[in-house]
Each structure stands twice: as structure tokens, then as C-alpha cells.
């Protein structure tokens, strides 16, 4: 058995899922919104990166930046449409879920209508080289994905720990009411959070598009995976999301190696269900009613 | 505006000419009363008031009720009452929904006769799809609305049942009527499997998990060779529609059979939602489970029951789906289908049967009939859904109560912003006054003073100067009567400093033993002068009040 291959695959997948799941997790815990438009943000940032690669430059850095920017902007649009009008209205959680689903539907259909069903592919962002580490051959896209997602996540986490805005976001995650009382603008912070998580989705999109293609519906599966990772790790816990991303990445790589690719989803969900049956709030989720708002 | 008043006592002395005085015209004291009572607050037309048609009700028919088996309900819920004005017996229909339902059923029954000639096939096929989807949505509404379990897997259950029964029918050549039965068994098994995590998980964890399950089913079906990954679906199951009939007859049979399925689903909805199980579940909505548990409601068992019942029903509908379309397609598991059906529920309004049916009608119409629009029709549905979620609380059928709540809010805002009708006391002062007569007295006093202020004119003052005591015109008499009736505290009086030479004005203390205080330094030299000075002072006070 090729442990090196399994490890490399698991690491790559874990990084990408982690990037997605942390975005979903932060959105849920700070805004109380399950962002189902995440898949749409994912697709549209892929398209943004593709348009940039077509019309402006094929430089990897610029393309990644374009994807992240598109994701951030569309995240803010989603915030303006689905968070701002209803976040103080009754039954916000269900309505927010449905509103983001509706945005997802509108957005993906608009993408389908405008760009057509044919999928696009991005130019290789990290070049064509490969790197032998510990006896295994890490290709450029894998190394690039791992390095860039780890770097961006580290930057985001450092920013959230050290900056004023990050402090506000963390305060919202702990207790939104108290945060509002001490003068943290809920709506403004909502925009920050959605821009941040949208940017993360954009990054994951650009990274995943190295292996898959960009299509109007290409965001759905990654979103569902990201949601399940966030769920498994415990909604609202960054550490849990990282652990769960690692676990599921290993599981996916192992399953596709041992049992075949078509079983991956089944083992994935069995694993998630088992974890959730043991810990109903996820691996690192806070038990009992931490967030009632 | 001035008139002339003749002193009636002049007639006692016919030698002299009649004494006449110029004075005010007669002014009705009720004018102020009417003006004060008039409703001057601007009212805006915020819809009409609730209006119910009052049916005449005969006394002997008072207790006659038409009940329908097996319930003890009347066909229409009436409220009997007496009209307080005519004292006649009247009946009001409290809930008109049964009428609308029956009209809708009649419309559905005769709709195929009125379908336009061209495109009739497409319309009838779309209508059959509408019926089947509405049936599934009704069962799903039991889970989402009644039980409050946010499960997104109901179309997965339907799809699994359709696939399973179609597969069995193809493999073993089973006849069509076994398909719903097989489907219900598969649905029940699926329901049990899905219900296990539902016991432990709550709310969103469950929604996301079921979303994942749907995706799992889709990927599995798309990749599996048995389920027709190559042909894009599994076809060839036995159907209840005979192949040798004409196309029109086949469509009609499909239409009415699907309609019957929807009717069955409606019946199920009514029997689950409107009876004991539904009551228990509405007692324990999300986030209030703890309270329900504390008062002894076993909501967990009820939720599992509803889940299993509706899974069974959805499975049966899935089997019927396979028998209707002669197979199943992976489209049933697609994220778009899930979104569309969720939008049907949301547009109609969560938790209502009519919401499920009308929402399905709207969405299926846009999706299947406006097919020329391409992807735009899904955009339209998405916009509808977004609009409903952002602005309405209970979907289309929640508009009426929401509008009423809004109107009531506006009404009470306006009522509380009215300052004029409250009287002389501030509202909070008024509520804390034990003697409510005081409120009315002050209000009356204010209106009286307003009226009297209008009577104070130069003529009246001139008349009083001329003749402070004795017969007065009507206006002056009213003023003096009012002044006379004032309480003793701070009432003006005349004190005699030196008889017939000097008089001064004082104000009474109102307390026995406490001397009156001097009001002014002025000294009057005759009683008439003093009376007039006192009068002027009182008039002054009245005008200032």
C-alpha cells in the first residue's frame, strides 16, 4: 500500500475541506446563519478566476486573488440579501437557511443561463513541477493547494486573534447579544464575516479547480462536503473543523484507495453519522444551548 | 354678531322705557360639546374591517348540525348569535376554507375538459406531476410543519421507493398494484434508518445531515449500474396505464389517478395534523421541547410516529410514481429538485395543507408550463422564494394574518398617538385616579370653559360695568353662574375697608381660621366698581386658563 499517496491525498483534501468548513463554521457561530449559498459563492468565484485568467492575466497569484475577491464580494451580496433584512426578525434561522438556498438557486441558474452548461478549466496556477518528499511524488497543484490554504488559514486566524475586527467577530461568536450591547455593530460585523468566509470559499474554489472543473453546479458537492465537515467538527468550532477535515480527508483517501471511489460518500456519511450519534454537537461542538439567538 | 337683549323686569315699571343692552347672539353650549366629541384624528384607509356575511338562522334549526363520518365535526363551522340591534338569530361561517377546498376539487375535476386543444398533453402531464408532487409535499409538510423536524430527505425517500419498486418490478415482473405497497415498505425502512439520528440530533444538524443523505443517494444512483447509470434512469416497470389506450385516454387516466393520490395525501394530512398527534406536536415546537416535556407531552414518540407514518406514505407515493412514469430517474435526488420542492412548501407557507398544494401548483406551473424560459424560470422561482422568505412570515397563506397583525399594530400606534380625546388628565395620571368621575368632571369643565371663553366680549363687559347686579343678558348670566359655582379655595371676594367709601379685593383661603389674602393694592370707591373689578379679574383668570 502506498502510504505516501494516501497521506498526500488526505492532506490536500483536508486542507481544502478545512478551508470550506471553517468558513461555514464561522458564519454559523457569529451570525447564526447557515450559509447554503456557499456552493454558489464557490462556483461564482471559480468563474471570476476563470474570467480573470481569460482576460487579464494567467499569473497564478492574480488568478487566486481574483477568485478570493469575487468570493468576498459575493459573500457580501449574500449578507446584504439574506442576513441584513431578517436577522432581527422571528424565526431567523429557518428563514435564513431558506433565503440562502433561494440565493443559491437564483445564482446557479443565472450562471447557467449566462455561461452555459459547459464547464471551464483554469490554467495550472502553480506551474508543472513535482517535488519528491519522503519517497512520494507531490505534484505542484497539491503542494500549492496545501501551502496556500494553510498560509491563508494561518493569516485569517492570526487576523482574527490580533485585530480589532477579529476581536469583534470572536465576540459575536461567543455571545451576539452581549456583543451588540457593548457596541459591536451586528450588521457591520456581518459584512466582515461574510466577506471573510466568501474569500475562503473563493480560495477553496480556485484550489479545487486544479483537479476538477468550474461549472454552474460545481459548488454543490464541495459545499455539502464542507457542511458535513463543519457539522462533524461541531458548528462554530474552528479547531473541530480542522480535526474533522483531517479525519474525513484520511477517510476519503483511504476509502478510495481500498474500496474504490464510488464508496467514498457512503463511508463518509457513515462516519459522520457515527460521530454525530456519539457526540450530537460534533467533535468539538459546545454541548447544550450555547447559541440560542 | 351682536344682538339686543331686553330686560324682562322692565315690564314691572311701565312708566319707563324698556331697558335694552347690546349683547352677544345666542350660542349653543352644545356646539363645543359636539366639536370636542367629533373625531378629528386623521384616519387612513388601511384595508377594510372584518366583514362576515350573516346568514339568517331559524330558531328551530338552532341545534341542527350536519356531521360527517368518522369525525364529529360539522361540515361548516358556524357561529350562531343574536343581532343585538334586530334581535334576530344570525349565523356566521367561522371558517370558509372547506368551501374553497370543495371549489378547488370541483375545478380540478373538470379542468381537463377546459384545457386548450394544443398543448393539452403537456398540460395534463404537468397536472399529473403537480398532483404527485403535491402529495409528496403534503406528507413532507407533516414532517417539517407539524413535527418540526427539518428533514430534507423526503424526496430521497420517495426516490428510493420509486427506484426500489421499479427495480423489483423489472426484475420479477411484478404487477403495478404491488408497486405502492413495495414502495411503502421501502419507505418505512428508509424512514426508520433516517429517524435514528433524528432522535439525537436537533434542528440544523439534522437538516444538514439529511442534505448529505440526499447527495449520497444521488451519487450512488448515478454511479450504480443496476440503477441505470448508463441509461440515465431505470425504466420498464409495469404501469397502471394500459399501453393500448389512446394517448388522450392515457393522459386522462394518469390525471385522475394522480388526483386521487393527492386526495389520499390530503386525507392523511388532515387525520395526522388535525388530530391527537398534530395537537401533541404543535404543543412542542422547536426550542420549546423542554416545556412540553415538563408538562408531560411525549413529543419524541409523537415525532417518531409522524416520521414513520409520513415515510410510509411518501414511500407509497414513490411506488405510485414508478407505476405512473414506468420507472424512476435520478432527477428525484437532484439538489435542484430538493430546492424546488422546498420552495413549494415555503411559497405556500409552512404547516398548512393549502400552502403545500397551492405552492406546488405555482412552482410546477412555472417549472413545467413556462418551459420556453429556460433557466430563467428557476431564477423566477428562486426570486419568489426569496421574496416570500424575506417579507412574509407564513408564506402566501400567512399574508392575511400578517396583514391583520400589521394593521392592528398601526391602529394601536395611532390610538396611542391621539392626544385630544384623552381629556384633561394625562393618560398615566388618568389610569391611576381611583375616582373616575374626576376625569369626566375635568373634561366637562374644560369644555365649559372653552365655551365661556367665547362669550367674553366687549358688550358683555360693558353690560357688567353698567349693571353689576340685577338682571343680565344670557351670556353674562352664564359667565356669572360659572364664577359663582367655583370652589372656595382662592375664590375672590370683596372686603369693605370703610363702608360706602373704600373696598378692596381679597382671595379666600378656603380654610377656616385662615385670613383671606389681599389680591391687589387698588382701592374701589363704590360696591359696583368693586363688583366689576372682581368680575374683570375672574374673566382674566378664565381667559388665561
Task: Explain the overall architecture.
The complex is a heterodimer of chains A (293) and B (545). Helix content of chain A is 71%, strand content 3%. By secondary structure, chain A is an all-alpha fold. Chain A has one domain (3-292): ABC transporter involved in vitamin B12 uptake, BtuC (Orthogonal Bundle), CATH 1.10.3470. Chain A has a two-stranded antiparallel ribbon with strand order 1-2. The longest helix of chain A is centred in the N-terminal third of the chain and has 29 residues, at 3-31. Chain A is globular, with a radius of gyration of 19 Å. Chain B has 545 residues and is mainly alpha-helical. Chain B has four domains: 4-37, no CATH class; 119-333, no CATH class; 334-416, no CATH class; 456-544, no CATH class. Chain B is built from 19 helices and ten strands. In chain B, a hairpin with a 6-residue loop joins strand 4 and strand 5. The longest helix of chain B is centred in the first third of the chain and has 27 residues, at 120-146. Classes of the chains: A mainly alpha (293), B mainly alpha (545). The interface between A and B is large, with 46 and 41 residues.
Amino acid at each position: 500500500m502506498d502510504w505516501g499517496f494516501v497521506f498526500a491525498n488526505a492532506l490536500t483534501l483536508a486542507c481544502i475541506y478545512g478551508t470550506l468548513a471553517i468558513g461555514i463554521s464561522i458564519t454559523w457561530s457569529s451570525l447564526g446563519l447557515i450559509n447554503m449559498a456557499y456552493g454558489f459563492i464557490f462556483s461564482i468565484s471559480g468563474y471570476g478566476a476563470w474570467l480573470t485568467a481569460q482576460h487579464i492575466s494567467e499569473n497564478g497569484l492574480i488568478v487566486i486573488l481574483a477568485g478570493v475577491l469575487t468570493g468576498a464580494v459575493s459573500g457580501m451580496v449574500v449578507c446584504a440579501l439574506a442576513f441584513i433584512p431578517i436577522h432581527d426578525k422571528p424565526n431567523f434561522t429557518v428563514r435564513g437557511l431558506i433565503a440562502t438556498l433561494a440565493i443559491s438557486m437564483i445564482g446557479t441558474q443565472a450562471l447557467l443561463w449566462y455561461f452555459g452548461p459547459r464547464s471551464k478549466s483554469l490554467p495550472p496556477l502553480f506551474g508543472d513541477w513535482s517535488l519528491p518528499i519522503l519517497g512520494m511524488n507531490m505534484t505542484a497543484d497539491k503542494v500549492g493547494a496545501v501551502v496556500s490554504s494553510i498560509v491563508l488559514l494561518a493569516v485569517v486566524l492570526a487576523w482574527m486573534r490580533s485585530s480589532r475586527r477579529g476581536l469583534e467577530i470572536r465576540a459575536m461568536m461567543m455571545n451576539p447579544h452581549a456583543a451588540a450591547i457593548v457596541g459591536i455593530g451586528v450588521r457591520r460585523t456581518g459584512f466582515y464575516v461574510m466577506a471573510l468566509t466568501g474569500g475562503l470559499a473563493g480560495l477553496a474554489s480556485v484550489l479545487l479547480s486544479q483537479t476538477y472543473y468550474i461549472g454552474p453546479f460545481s459548488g454543490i458537492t464541495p459545499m455539502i462536503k464542507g457542511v458535513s465537515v463543519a457539522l462533524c467538527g461541531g458548528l462554530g468550532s474552528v479547531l473541530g473543523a480542522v480535526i474533522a477535515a483531517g479525519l474525513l480527508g484520511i477517510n476519503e483517501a483511504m476509502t478510495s484507495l481500498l474500496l474504490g471511489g464510488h464508496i467514498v460518500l457512503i463511508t463518509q456519511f457513515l462516519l459522520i453519522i457515527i460521530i454525530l450519534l456519539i457526540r450530537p454537537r460534533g467533535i468539538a461542538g459546545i454541548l447544550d444551548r450555547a447559541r440560542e439567538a | 354678531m351682536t344682538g339686543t337683549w331686553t330686560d324682562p323686569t322692565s315690564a314691572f315699571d311701565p312708566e319707563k322705557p324698556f331697558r335694552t343692552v347690546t349683547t352677544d347672539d345666542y350660542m349653543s353650549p352644545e356646539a363645543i360639546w359636539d366639536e370636542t366629541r367629533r373625531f378629528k384624528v386623521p384616519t387612513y384607509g388601511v384595508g377594510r374591517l372584518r366583514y362576515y356575511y350573516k346568514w339568517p338562522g331559524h330558531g328551530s334549526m338552532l341545534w341542527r348540525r350536519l356531521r360527517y363520518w368518522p369525525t364529529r365535526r360539522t361540515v361548516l363551522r358556524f357561529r350562531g348569535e343574536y343581532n343585538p340591534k334586530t334581535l334576530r338569530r344570525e349565523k356566521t361561517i367561522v371558517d370558509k376554507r372547506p368551501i374553497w377546498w370543495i371549489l378547488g376539487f370541483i375545478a380540478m375535476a373538470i379542468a381537463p375538459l377546459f384545457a386548450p386543444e394544443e398543448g393539452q398533453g403537456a398540460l395534463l402531464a404537468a397536472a399529473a406531476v403537480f398532483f404527485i408532487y403535491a402529495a409528496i409535499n403534503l406528507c413532507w409538510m407533516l414532517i417539517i410543519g407539524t413535527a418540526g423536524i427539518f428533514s430534507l430527505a423526503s424526496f430521497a425517500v420517495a426516490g428510493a421507493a420509486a427506484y426500489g419498486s421499479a427495480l423489483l418490478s423489472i426484475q420479477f415482473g411484478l404487477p403495478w398494484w404491488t408497486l405502492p405497497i413495495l414502495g411503502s415498505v421501502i419507505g418505512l425502512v428508509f424512514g426508520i434508518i433516517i429517524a435514528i439520528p433524528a432522535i439525537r440530533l436537533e434542528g440544523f444538524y439534522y437538516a444538514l445531515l439529511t442534505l448529505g443523505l440526499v447527495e449520497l443517494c444521488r451519487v450512488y444512483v448515478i454511479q450504480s449500474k443496476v440503477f441505470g447509470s448508463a441509461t440515465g434512469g431505470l425504466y420498464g416497470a409495469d404501469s397502471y396505464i394500459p399501453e393500448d389506450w389512446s394517448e388522450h385516454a392515457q393522459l386522462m387516466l394518469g390525471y385522475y389517478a394522480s388526483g386521487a393520490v393527492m386526495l389520499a395525501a390530503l386525507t392523511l394530512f388532515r387525520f395526522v395534523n388535525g388530530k391527537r398527534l398534530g395537537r401533541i406536536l404543535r404543543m412542542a415546537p422547536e426550542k420549546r421541547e423542554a416545556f412540553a416535556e415538563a408538562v408531560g407531552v411525549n413529543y419524541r414518540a409523537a415525532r417518531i410516529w409522524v416520521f414513520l407514518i409520513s415515510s410510509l406514505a411518501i414511500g407509497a407515493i414513490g411506488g405510485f410514481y414508478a407505476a405512473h412514469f414506468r420507472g424512476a430517474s435520478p432527477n428525484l435526488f437532484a439538489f435542484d429538485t430538493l430546492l424546488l420542492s422546498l420552495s413549494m412548501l415555503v411559497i405556500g407557507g409552512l404547516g398548512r395543507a393549502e400552502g403545500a398544494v397551492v405552492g406546488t401548483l405555482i412552482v410546477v406551473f412555472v417549472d413545467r408550463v413556462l418551459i420556453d424560459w429556460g433557466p430563467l424560470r428557476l431564477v423566477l422561482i428562486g426570486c419568489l422564494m426569496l421574496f416570500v422568505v424575506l417579507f412574509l412570515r407564513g408564506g402566501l397563506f400567512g399574508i392575511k394574518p400578517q396583514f391583520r397583525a400589521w394593521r392592528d399594530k398601526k391602529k394601536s400606534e395611532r390610538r396611542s398617538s391621539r392626544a385630544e380625546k384623552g381629556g384633561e388628565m394625562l393618560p398615566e395620571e388618568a389610569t391611576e385616579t381611583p375616582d373616575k368621575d374626576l376625569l369626566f368632571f375635568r373634561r366637562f369643565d374644560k369644555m365649559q370653559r372653552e365655551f365661556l371663553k367665547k362669550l367674553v366680549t366687549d358688550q358683555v363687559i360693558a353690560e357688567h360695568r353698567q349693571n353689576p347686579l340685577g338682571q343680565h343678558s344670557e351670556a353674562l348670566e352664564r359667565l356669572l353662574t360659572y364664577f359663582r359655582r367655583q370652589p372656595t379655595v382662592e375664590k375672590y371676594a370683596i372686603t369693605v375697608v370703610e363702608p360706602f367709601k373704600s373696598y378692596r379685593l381679597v382671595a379666600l383661603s378656603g380654610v377656616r381660621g385662615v385670613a383671606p389674602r389681599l389680591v391687589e393694592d387698588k382701592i374701589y370707591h363704590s360696591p359696583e366698581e368693586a363688583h366689576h373689578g372682581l368680575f374683570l379679574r375672574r374673566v382674566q383668570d378664565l381667559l388665561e386658563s
